[in-house]
Amino acid sequence: MAIARAIAARPPIIMADEPTGALDSKTGRQVLEILHSLHEEGSTVILITHDNGIAATAERIVRLSDGRVVADGPREEVGL
Length: 80
What we know:
Elements (H helix, E strand, L loop, with lengths): L1 H6 L5 E5 L7 H16 L3 E5 L3 H4 L4 E6 L2 E7 H4 L2
Parallel strand pairs: 1-2
Antiparallel strand pairs: 3-4
């Protein structure tokens, strides 16, 4: 429900902190598909995750360690 409320107004920026964390795998894939669709329609999607599989679906990845940026770039350059 929180995801539906957040995207209903088609905001230009969507910040999704662990959006699949409490979901089963099927529903998690559906949520990621929605976020990718919103990105294709022009929204900027900032996705925070600890799951490398989810991170690997992003165009750009910024890795943090102890509050510092340790990698920043396309998934191919970051090693995913």
